[in-house]
Amino acid sequence: MPRSKKILEQIKNEKKQQILQSALELFARKGYHATSVDQIAQKAKISKGLIYNYFKSKKDILLTLVNSLFEQMDLALPQVKPSKLTEEDIERYILTSMQALEQNPQNIKLYFMLYMQPDIEELVKPLVENYIDKIVNFLSPYYKSRGIHEPRSHILSLIASLDGLSLHYILLQYPEYKEIIKTIIQKFVYI
Amino acid sequence: MPRSKKILEQIKNEKKQQILQSALELFARKGYHATSVDQIAQKAKISKGLIYNYFKSKKDILLTLVNSLFEQMDLALPQVKPSKLTEEDIERYILTSMQALEQNPQNIKLYFMLYMQPDIEELVKPLVENYIDKIVNFLSPYYKSRGIHEPRSHILSLIASLDGLSLHYILLQYPEYKEIIKTIIQKFVYI
Amino acid sequence: MPRSKKILEQIKNEKKQQILQSALELFARKGYHATSVDQIAQKAKISKGLIYNYFKSKKDILLTLVNSLFEQMDLALPQVKPSKLTEEDIERYILTSMQALEQNPQNIKLYFMLYMQPDIEELVKPLVENYIDKIVNFLSPYYKSRGIHEPRSHILSLIASLDGLSLHYILLQYPEYKEIIKTIIQKFVYI
Amino acid sequence: MPRSKKILEQIKNEKKQQILQSALELFARKGYHATSVDQIAQKAKISKGLIYNYFKSKKDILLTLVNSLFEQMDLALPQVKPSKLTEEDIERYILTSMQALEQNPQNIKLYFMLYMQPDIEELVKPLVENYIDKIVNFLSPYYKSRGIHEPRSHILSLIASLDGLSLHYILLQYPEYKEIIKTIIQKFVYI
DNA sequence: CATGAATGAGCATTCATTCAT
DNA sequence: GATGAATGAATGCTCATTCAT
Predict the structure, then answer these.
(1) Residues B157, B143: Cα–Cα separation, whole Å
(2) Domains of chain A and CATH, by start
């Protein structure tokens, strides 16, 4: 079962899940504006009106998806004490994250879509900042113990690299993809 | 008596630039779909109808902007023979590119917007692929001469890192930005 | 609780008829292009948007009207075996048809409008051809039994005469109308 | 030289002729509403603005064409004293008229288009009525001398038949066309 | 005379949202 | 809860007409 479904299951109501799942697929495939509420309803096999029992607007659906996405990303962080992190833990974390991307590009498309959706930018910004801080805090002890006294910008550049790779993967799907992950891991993890 | 052809041509070009500039600002700030032709016209201080004297559709405006963006990016490539590239050339190229981003974030927003616009994805993909190939070809001799026999994935990961950083910069504008550029340069250029 | 399917179906059909009736009147009075969807909606006392719940385009409304027109014309054919047709049957058929024209000139205006609408000409042509063939087949036995061995062109000239008269009637409404029908019947039926 | 050109030549101004000729072709091919002033200008190889030096509106162009059409139809009447008309004169007149249709279907398309253009119907009606009266007056002596005491409705049915045939010819172009003309002549002329 | 840039009203169509049932 | 008919504002685009040059 893909990770995204797990998260959506936390939302008890089955209808609501159907709506969110349908919206996610359509938003990722066609974009937010190009997806109509009608299409979401049809894909979810419910009536258009019912959507407004669960969500107060189309944008509300998007925001719910976003929150669910960030919850899911939180859960993906390894369950290890930061002070005990090893190279292998980090490598595994990166590989797992990138695998999630391959298996479920919809979520990542959604994630990037948010960057470009200026009318919700302000809502997403704190979520992204918070998530980045979490990763920085999580990885800092490791880099400090390896002699990097100001690891923040180091970690930020790692995240940027992975985000950039994800972006390229979605548009271009070039075959060197796995190779590049390795390159990034070598440059940023084993130091 | 009709106006001379030269003057007409000039007026036409100025108007066209006006429209393009207005559209760029609005597309970057609000997104392509959320920007109406009417808004572009108002910002350019012309009537809606006139836009269609210069562009055959809203999409045509976008594509013109995209093409101009890629032309600009081409021009930013250093005018040096690839075989004679030095570390400093590449560093300078990266710094200049990132400076362009700071000075003109609209263009980059437009660039990323294209990744998320499924209905034009197909039009942009070849442009991006072509541009990436250009950079790869341009930088390959340098990396080969430094002992990297398959430099393609190495260069791709550099581009991904810079793209990722640009993306973060647009949304987050974190203060470590300059620091991260340096980190990336150190990891990917001086090897 | 949603409305029962039967009731919904009924509402739908009534609304559809309302729209079609309004469109027919306007198309006949002002022409297809000179009639706006807005005007149809106003005449049908519904909102413009609702029209698109029932018809996928303005042209779709026109085509529905045209099909219904040809269905009506089919029904007007006498329910007699062609081989048993008498002079009186044909005369009655012609008189009934022309009476329908008097009572409902809109339909005939629509019919002629199609001849002049180059963008739908191709759609209507087969309908007209098919209808003409039907009449030719229907009347042929009668004329053959009266010694006309190649009745097709004879029947075609009858149809042309009636169409021409209808056309004149619509524009000119001259008082000799009934007289002319008689003349045509005498010349083409009683032979 | 086709007859229509001759008529248009009476209008001295060459530019005006160009406009009218272009408009005629476009109106006949695409319909009045579907033809833009721009297209007329392009076909006439002049600027859009110049059209308004010669005609005060698009509709004015149409009306000028209509008047020219009726003038031309007047000229086509045989130059024989009505009292001296023979069967052969009438037959020749009908054959000539129908030949004109074959050679220049544009004019006839325009003629029928007028029937369907309700906003100019009122302007055309007197022209048509006048023309019909002319033919009636012209042919009446012939029919009277053949024993038809009220020839008006007889002549009207002849005109209707020919108009109906013309209409069919334009849309359907069936091969029996020539045959039908003969049938009509036999029924309406040789009595 | 001649041009074509410019306007503004109008058009078909879409769609998020509401609401009676 | 559930439906889908209905609304109305918005959108991209067209085009007859005007007018400065």
Answers:
(1) 13
(2) 5-55 (1.10.10.60), 63-188 (1.10.357)
